[in-house]
Amino acid sequence: MSGKRIGVFLDRDGTLNNEVDYIRKPDDLHLIAGAGQAVHKLNTRGLVTCVISNQSGIARGYLTEGELVPVHAKLEQELARDKGKLDRIYYCPHHPTQGRAPYNIECECRKPKIGMLRRGADELGIDIGRSFVIGDSVVDIQAGNSANTRTILVLTGYGARTLEQCTSNNIHINHIAPTIVEAVDYILNTLDGEIKSNE
User: Active site includes 122?
Assistant: First the structure.
């Protein structure tokens, strides 16, 4: 055992909240049913919770980094209604080919690259190899695989389409869950099983 904590890296759109093309204001953000309680379950088990979100709408000029702040405040407020708390929210404002300077660059943080996972691991003392990524898109699963985490695909958001893409391209998924609620139950059951096997 490393002594480091186990993290759960959560995609935002389509995973925690309903998928909307380029959320631009707080009123556009609505939680998926049960998301707050699910995050609270992770909190009560002492797991580190980090959002990792591609936000190329900033590069494309749909909103500014400043305008993203109240959107994420709304996310935290909505989760808090059910006592859910995020330890960090990481986002990538870049796009490699589209948008405006200084955001139209090839970066290390845009999923499927693993810059946001590495940052979370470094800042919060997370053991990546024992951690989980939950998301609804191919890039979420690819990022988790590249970082050697355990990956969970939720079927909300783009999840059903992603499952087809992962299947046809032999992209490994550790577990498939209907929503964030079942994804969190899977994580807790998995960790309970590991504890028992180590007793």
Answer: no
